[in-house]
Specification:
The complex is a heterodimer. Chain A is of the alpha/beta class. Chain A is built from five helices and five strands; from the N terminus they run βαβαβαβαβα. In chain B, a hairpin with a 3-residue loop joins strand 2 and strand 3 (about 55-60). The chains are: A alpha/beta, B alpha+beta.
Chain lengths: ~130, ~160
């Protein structure tokens, strides 16, 4: 199974770092699709299917919370596991994100092992569901 | 009197630099640093929410280029100034998130604004150099200054 992964972050450098970490994780990744904010991500998701989405929280135009809320309100998009990749360290905020239905959470700075663990975990969870 | 976050900053900055970009930093005394900044960048992250304030970081150009190269896998010689500055902005963003957790714990909710580049890095360098709350480092022999300023209501948030 080759994975298609959506990376949503307003920083091109962080998107490159996330893709580098994902490709270093030794998982079979076919394509990483980049989006600079939540609206760009929704535009991408209108025409492309992805297996997992890594989403930052603080972004211009449309932030990560609004993106996740919109995805969870859509019958098709709500099945895509969302992993938040953010600087956010507040447990209160993380609990709020989990209530929105995120599948996982990664805090910057991150490692390839964390990406491998998250992707493996959420896809197994997704298959079981 | 502002809160003194020196010890936390001295712990967090080397950890993040090493984990994010394999750059090694050591705390430095002010008299170990050069008197000015010829080439470099200055960035700031504004903090809202449980407390207000900002994190300001000023760094020499070389360490920013090295940071960008380590982040992206490019050669440091090929890093454009815009990429070096963007790398420092992202480093400041990550540092800010980590520092706030160490300073205030995991309960308070902070909203970080997008990092911004500051004009006149040499002037920012001088301002931080002269500020008693600035924490200085040498990162791969390149000067690196960090100033965390938080409002007094932080004590209630923590």
């Amino acid at each position: 199974m080759s994975l298609r992964i959506l990376i949503v972050d307003d920083s091109p450098i962080i998107r490159a770092v996330i893709e580098k970490n994902i490709r270093m994780s030794e998982l079979a990744v076919d394509q990483c699709i980049h989006a600079g904010n939540g609206q760009e991500a929704l535009d991408q998701l209108g025409g492309e299917w992805v297996d997992v989405a890594f989403v930052d929280i603080n972004m211009p135009v449309m932030n990560g919370v609004e993106l996740i809320t919109r995805m969870k309100a859509d019958d098709l998009l709500k099945t895509i596991p969302v992993v938040v990749a953010s600087t956010e360290g507040s447990q209160t905020r993380i609990d709020q994100l989990r209530e929105l239905g995120i599948a996982g959470y990664l805090r910057k700075p991150f490692t390839p092992e964390q990406f491998k663990e998250q992707i493996t975990q959420v896809l197994e969870l997704n298959d079981a569901a | 009197m502002p809160h003194d976050h020196t010890e936390i900053i001295q712990e967090v900055v080397p950890e993040v630099l090493e984990q994010l970009a394999f750059v090694f930093a050591d705390p430095a005394e002010a008299d170990e640093l050069p008197g000015g900044l010829e080439q470099g960048f200055a960035v700031r992250v504004k903090i809202n929410g449980a407390a207000t304030g900002s994190l300001t970081v000023v760094s020499g150009r070389d360490i920013c280029a090295e940071l960008a190269a380590n982040l992206t896998g490019d050669d440091p010689e090929d890093v454009e100034p815009e990429s070096a500055e963007m790398a420092l902005m992202e480093l400041a963003n990550v540092l800010c998130g980590q520092l706030l957790t160490r300073v205030a714990g995991v309960e308070p909710v902070f909203d970080l604004e997008a990092p911004t580049a500051l004009d006149s890095p040499p002037e920012q360098w001088q301002a931080l150099h002269d500020n008693e709350w600035t924490v200085a480092f040498l990162a791969d022999d390149c000067p690196f200054l960090v100033l965390l300023e938080l409002s007094a209501d932080l004590a209630q948030a923590a």
